[in-house]
């Protein structure tokens, strides 16, 4: 009521009062923002380095995909039907990580840095039906190998309130370098010609998501186990393919290489 009278009776006083209130609000707002950035800076400046080495088993199913090449010239061409074999593969893999760890609050910490993964070569196998027509076509086999490597920006969120055991979740995105190589077939060259493919390294988008648990085994050492799902992206053999000495278009490819990983890892914090 008193402020209302002052504003009503003297407009100049009301302007001064409004300016004072605005200045006070700005001061408190700036102080809050400054405190927020100061806390964030303190958290970053008190972080520590992390190096992690790990490995385990990677499981992939139906790595290769089927592909048909139809007849274009009925006089000279043959058709080629590649049917990839359905199979599950288990390979060993190696992983590493270097980055930092920061405490977000008393309950959670975050790791952020670069990760590298490499698995043993996987194989693509299948049957090849080839000929000028179905009545005179022959069935052969083919195979080639795929080697995948990933370089990712990774982030891990760790529950740190428990004394020794720390559950975590992680995500990562980056680039995958997938090399398809060593294409072979049992088609006898003294009987007929067939398509031959050069090796090729494909760069693709990759991502991973995972979860696990870590345990303190020393003041600056943690032992962890976890699970990760990974999409290593596209791979393909090279182009152009050759039939004898003639270049032809098209190649064998797979858009996504999906895999599941079980890993054990050892982390050093410094």
Explain what you see:
This protein has 270 residues and is α+β, with helices and mostly antiparallel strands. It is built from two helices and 16 strands. It has helices at residues 2-9, 11-45, and strands spanning 48-61, 67-69, 79-84, 88-103, 108-119, 122-131, 138-159, 165-185, 195-196, 200-218, 221-231, 235-236, 241-243, 246-248, 253-254, 258-269. The strands form three sheets. An eight-stranded antiparallel barrel has the order 1-4-5-7-8-10-11-16. It has a three-stranded antiparallel beta sheet with strand order 9-13-14, with no helix packed on it. A hairpin with a 2-residue loop joins strand 10 (200-218) and strand 11 (221-231). Helix 1 packs across helix 2. It is elongated, with a radius of gyration of 31 Å. Mean pLDDT is 88; it is low at 1-8 and 27-31.
